[in-house]
Amino acid sequence: MLKHLIVKTSSLGDIVHMLPALTDAAKQVPDANFDWVTESSFAEIPAWHPNVDNIIPNNLRRWHKERFRPSTWPEIKIFIKELRQTPYEKAIDAQGLIKSAVIARLSRGKSWGYDKHSIRDPFASYLYQHTVSVPYKEHAVTRNRLILAKSLGYSIEDCPLDYGIAGNSDFRQALEQLAISFQIPDKFIMALHGTSRKAKEWPVENWESFIKAIGNTGHYILFPWGNDEEHQRASYLSDKYKKALTVPKSSLTTLSGLIEKSAAVIGMDTGLMHIAAALDKKGIGIYPVTEPRLSGALAPGNQIENIGGKDSLDASAINEKMLKLLGQEPV
Length: 331
Hints:
Blueprint: E1 2-7, H1 12-28, E2 32-39, H2 44-48, E3 52-58, H3 60-65, H4 72-83, E4 87-93, H5 98-106, E5 108-114, E6 130-132, H6 140-152, H7 169-178, E7 188-192, H8 204-215, E8 220-223, H9 228-240, E9 244-246, H10 252-261, E10 264-267, H11 271-278, E11 283-287, H12 292-295, E12 304-308, H13 315-325
Helix pairs in contact: 1-6, 1-11, 7-10, 8-13
């Protein structure tokens, strides 16, 4: 069996974007298997894919912030030791940054990555032993599929888009645990309201409009959260509207189980929307400031409609779209 290393350290959405490439490889190179280097906070995600053997976690972001802390360098040494334990046929950097290129080069495998015309940080390309050309203006999912295909020598032409994680038993088990402390409604929509920047958010009054419009259909609106600000917004909405519920602080596996069980998903430019796409859920992605054509949620069945720019702030229009997705006529 051929053992390869994938280097894709962050962030949540970027890691989800890599999953279809592993599905392609499983079909095209059946004797290949993979280990994966990623940030510890995202280590759950590669583990969902059946073609990933071993996760090598790191804490690059924290180490960078705490580089003068005495405990940081011993942690880095432990990571490098684990990285170099296994000889690999190829170490493929799908991140395309200097830090990820260094990790690929430190491993015990021939390092592969994007050439200087294919990435935002062209200096990284000089650290690889082998480079491949991938069109820069392809969707991020396609770019990941192409770099792995070109590195391993196969074509994705006859490979349907498949993230390889639908129906994962971990999701079901996580929901069983959640149900002990939280009553999961029979009919609900996941509202993925959190995002990395203030400019990417939907105004709270838009969420109120959405709850009023969709609550009349009998669906509950579930609001997960990951930080204090998101918790405050979710709590405000769930305190004010009986059809809005705040989800307890949950793992990515639990949230993925809820997403898979939901009737539909609505969300901002956030990694959880990419998980929704990976699970082929129907829904609406909202992109006030980013270009969804290159990095929007890409579902196998094209069931997610990505809306960008000023149209993304029109709550009434988005409410109508969701009602139609649910098979309801707008009032």
